[in-house]
Amino acid sequence: MHHYVPALGGYDIAKVHEFAEKNYYKLGPIYKEDLRALNAPGDFAFWLSDADDIEKVYRSGGKFPIRGGFDSLAVYRKTRPDVYKALGLLILNGKDWHTFRSKIQPVLLQPRVISNYSNSISSIADEMINVIRQSRDEKTLEIADLGPELYRYTLESIAFIALDKRLNCLSDYGTTQRNIVASVKELFHLEATLNESFLWRIIGRPYGKNWKRFMQINDEFTSMVFEFVQEKIKQLASEPVKNPEDDVSVLELFLSRPDCTPEDAVTMTMDMFYAGIDTTAHLILFTLHHLANHSDFQERVYQEIMDLSNGTGHLDSEQLSNLTFLKACIKETSRLTPVVPILMRISQEPIALSGYAIPARSFLILNHYTVHHRPDYFTDPLSFKPDRWARKSREEIKAHLFAVLPFGHGPRMCIGRRIAELETLSLLSKIIYNFKVTAKHTELPLSLKIISYPDNKMTFTFNERQR
Ligand code: HEM
Questions:
Q1: Inside any domain, residue 340
Q2: Which end of the chain is more exposed for a tag (fewer CB within 10 A), N or C?
C-alpha cells in the first residue's frame, strides 16, 4: 500500500493501469494489496487480469452486485436529504440500489425510448459539425484541442435527453453555457482528486478548498436541475396527457411512473450528468484518434456511411446500428484505449479465483486494461485492428466474451449505454462524412481519474471532403 503514498510511494495513481500491467508480468494474473491502513470497507484488494476470473466475478454478483466509488459524491448527497432521498445509482448498493434501478432501467435501456431521440441527436450532431468548422484555424484547418469542444456536444445531448431542454452549448455559446460546461468538467475531476486523498481515508470525510468547491458546484447544478424538473411538472399539469404512441421524453417517463418522485428524477438526471459527459466525449475522441491515424480504416468507414445513406450522410437509428465497421472501430478503440480501464466489485461471499480462496468483503479489481493487451487473448495486441471484431474473425480468434466489456456486465451494467452509442455513432458518422481527419499525435497516453483522460491536447486537422 505504501506504493500509493503521494510523492514517496513511487506510484502515480493516475497511471495505476500501467503499474497494474507491469505487475501482471511480474506477479501473474492475480495479486493482493493490503488496504488495512486506509480505513477502507474491505481489508484487501485483489487485482484480476484473467478473463475467466473476471467472468466468475461478474457471474457471482447475484441480484445486487456491490460496487464502490463516488465516495465524495455520497458524502455530499447525504448533506442534502431535502433532494437526495435516494443516493442514486452510482452510489447505492444492495436492495436500495435495486429499487432505484428498477424505476430507471425500463426507461433508459429501452431501445424504442432512446431511438426516439435519434433525430434530435442528429440535429445536435449537425450543430457540432458547425462548431468544428468554426473552431478550425483558418489556414491550417486544425483544432488545437478537440476535447473541450466535444464536452459541449455530450452535455447538450444529455441535457436534452434527460431534461427535455436545450442548453444551447453549441449554437449560442455564451458565458452561462461556458460556465456550465466548465463546472461539469470540474465536478468529475474534483470527485477523483478528493477520493485520491490519503487524509480523507484516515479522517473519514473530504475536506479543504476542493471539497468546498465540489459542494458549491453540486449545489448549483442540483438547483438548476430541480428548477427544470419543477417546470416540467407544471407543464405536465397544464397540458393534456399525451397519447402513449407519442414521443415521450425520458423526464416525462420518469415523472409519469407512480413510484418515481420529482426528487428521484433530479437524482437520476444528476447521475446522467456525472456519468454521461466525459465518458462519451472520450469514446468519440479516442475513436477519432485511431481513425485519424489509420486513413485506410477511415476510408472504409466513409464508404460504409455513403453506402448506407445513399450518399446523403443522413442515417436514421436503424441505419446507424448497421454501421458495422464503424462499430468495430469503436469496439477496438475500447480495447486498446478504454474509457473505463478498470472496474470494481466487492465480494459478498468467499470466491475461488485462479486457485486462491478469496474472502468475502474483498475489493475485486477487474483489470480489463491488462486483459485487453494480453497477447494470449489478442494477437498483435498493441495494434489497432478493427477487423478482429468482424463476426468471422471473432470466431477465428475466439475472443473471450468477458475480455472487453466497455459498459460492464450484468445487473449493474451501464444504464446509459444506448444513449452513449447513439451519440457516438451519430457524431462520428457525420464527422467522417464531412471531413478527412488527421491527427497531430500518433500515441495516445492516458491518465486515470476514475475514467481515462488523454495526457495531451488532442489536435486534429479537418479537411473538407470533396464529393
Ligand atoms: C462511452 C460512454 C460510457 C461508458 C464507456 C460507460 C461505462 C460505464 C461502466 C463501465 C459502468 C459500470 C458498469 C458495471 O459496474 O458493471 C457504468 C455505469 C453507469 N453509467 Fe455509464 N458509460 C458511458 C456512458 C454513460 C452515459 C451516457 C450515462 C448516462 C445516461 C451513463 C450512466 C451510468 C450510470 C448511472 C451508471 C451506474 C449504473 C448502476 O450502477 O446501476 N453512462 N458506465
A1: no
A2: C
pLDDT of residue 183: 86
Q: Which helix (H) or strand (E) element contains residue 289?
A: helix 278-293
103, 414, 423, best to mutate for ligand 1 pocket (most atoms within 8 Å of CB):
414
Q: Supply the ipTM of this predicted assembly.
A: 0.99
CA separation for the pair 238, 220 (Å, rounded):
28
Any atom of ligand 1 within 6 Å of the Cβ of 163: no
Whether 237 is covered by a domain: the verdict is yes
- Domains in the chain: how many in total? 1
Q: Is 408 helix (H, G, I), strand (E, B) or coil?
A: coil
Query: Where in 20-141 does DSSP place strands (E)?
Result: 30-34, 44-48
Is 343 touching ligand 1 by the criterion CB < 6 Å? yes
The CATH number that applies at residue 78 is: 1.10.630.10
Q: Check residue 467 and give its pLDDT.
A: 84
Show the cell assigned to 202. 484516515
Residue 222 lies in domain: 65-278+406-410
β-partners of residue 438 are 461
- Please tell me the predicted confidence (pLDDT) of residue 2: 55
**CB of 454 closer than 6 angstroms to any ligand 1 atom:** no
Mean pLDDT by 10 residues, the chain (467 residues): 54 86 95 79 87 96 89 94 94 95 89 87 97 97 96 94 90 84 86 83 86 95 92 82 64 87 93 93 98 98 98 95 97 98 93 95 95 94 94 62 94 96 98 98 95 96 95
Q: What's the pLDDT at 404?
A: 95
Confirm or reject: Cβ of 344 under 6 Å from ligand 1: no
Task: Confirm whether 434 is domain-assigned.
Answer: no
The answer to the question of residue 4 being in a domain is no
Alpha helices in 310-455 (DSSP H): 317-321, 324-336, 368-372, 391-397, 417-434
Cα 340 to averaged position of ligand 1 atoms, centre (Å): 9
Atom of ligand 1 lying closest to residue 339 CA? 5
pLDDT in the model for residue 10 = 59
